[in-house]
Amino acid sequence: MSEKDSQADWRGVGESIKDLGKKLKAHADDAQDAIKSSSAPLTGVAEQISAVFKIGIAKLDEAATDPAVGAAARGATGKFLDALKAQLGTDTQPAPKAPSGT
């Protein structure tokens, strides 16, 4: 295995995290738009806080259950673990054998 093949793909990790960030930002922008466009007439501060909180929780739930976000998170995690293994050299070296005792 060449030195290049054994190097960690940290650039790939960064791209995967960037992709995850874009998906999360899209959800955050959607939540912000939903909060801004809330058309219910609110009279008191408590009602306003309650409405914003409810919208925020609903949008957070949408982001957490979005299959695209889940796939991006799994992809970023997998890339990170692969790069970490390559950096530590654990993916190219077999586990040490226990002494045979004979």
Written account of the structure:
The protein has helices at residues 3-6, 10-36, 45-65, 67-88. With 102 residues, it is mainly α. The longest helix is centred in the N-terminal third of the chain and has 27 residues, at 10-36. The chain starts with a helix and ends in a 14-residue tail after the last helix. The model has no long low-confidence stretch (mean pLDDT 82).
Q: Which residue ranges are poorly predicted, with pLDDT under 50 across at least 5 consecutive positions? A: none
Return the average pLDDT rounded to an integer.
82
**What is the tally of helical segments?**
4
Radius of gyration: 23 Å
Strand content: under 5%
Structural class, please?
Answer: mainly alpha
Please give the number of β-strands.
0
Question: Which overall shape is indicated by the principal axes computed on the Cα atoms?
Answer: elongated
Order of helices and strands: HHHH
Helix content: over 70%
Note the gap between the termini.
Answer: 34 Å
Major sheet: none
Please summarize what this structure is.
The chain has helices at residues 3-6, 10-36, 45-65, 67-88. With 102 residues, the chain is mainly α.
